[in-house]
């Protein structure tokens, strides 16, 4: 019975990490399409 809350927390954590890395990848792709480059999580070199 004690395993269920721990398993739920682990599942929530894994889903959060998957979403975080997915969004980060999308931002990197969009930055590259606009002619910039990613450095330390920021898109540099794009003028809009």
Summarize the structure in words.
The chain has 48 residues and is an alpha+beta fold. It has one domain. Helix content is 65%, strand content 12%. Strands 1-2 form a two-stranded antiparallel ribbon. The longest helix is centred in the middle third of the chain and has 31 residues. The chain is rod-shaped. The termini are far apart. The model has no long low-confidence stretch (mean pLDDT 92).
What's the helix and strand layout?
Blueprint: H1 3-33, E1 37-39, E2 42-44
Antiparallel strand pairs: 1-2
In what range is the share of β-strand residues? 5-15%
**Secondary structure tally, helices:** 1
Helix/strand structural class: alpha+beta
In total, the number of domains comes to: 1
- What strand order characterises the main sheet? 1-2
Note poorly predicted spans: none
Cα-atom radius of gyration: 17 Å
Q: How can the largest sheet be summarized?
A: 2 strands, antiparallel
Give a count of the beta strands, DSSP E runs of length 2 or more: 2
Query: SSE order, as H and E?
Result: HEE
Termini, distance in Å?
Answer: 55 Å
């Amino acid at each position: 019975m004690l395993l269920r809350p721990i398993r739920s927390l682990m599942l929530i954590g894994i889903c959060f990490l998957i979403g975080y890395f997915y969004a980060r990848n999308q931002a990197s792709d969009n930055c590259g399409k606009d002619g910039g480059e990613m450095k330390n999580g920021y898109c540099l070199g794009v003028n809009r």
